[in-house]
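User: If only I could read backbone structure tokens as easily as an amino acid sequence. Underneath my words sits a plain record pairing an amino acid chain with its backbone structure tokens. This is the protein in question:
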Amino acid sequence: MTSISQRERMLAGEPYAASDAELVAERMRCAKAVMAYNHSAPDEPALRQRLLSELLGYLGPDSDVQPPFRCDYGYQIHVGARFFANYGLVALDVGRITIGDDVQIGPNVQLLTAGHPVEPAARLRKEEWGKPITIGDNVWLGGGVIVCPGVTIGANTVVGAGAVVTRDLPANVLCVGNPARVLRQL
């Protein structure tokens, strides 16, 4: 019988041990790539695009991420065309992060797919898990928005600055607050 690796468990959204040697090595590789990207010169757009393309699972054309940028693995992030992220994007990609076309992200936004158990015994075992985040086309996330694990945000939705998105948001709405709630239809 073949045992499932911690990486396979992570990719499947099952509890896994982040201290696994393979996962530690992947995070170190990612940290070096993120450092290279964050220290690239703004007047070298071709180099920056190459670095970002090598880091992410997919980077659509005409997309831009302003440094500093942080992520865990990189390969779990898939970004559509004409994407823009302002300074300070944190994308903890334990789970897959899928971002549509024409998405705009304000400064200091956090996309958090990683989760930790509430139960004390599981925390002592250092268990973690991840749930995917999906952001539809033409979404705008204002500055400081936090998107929690397992959330889907529908197309054309606007999330106001500082909102904490804890559950799915429909398409074509304006959402604000903590937790984020629909303010009105767009």
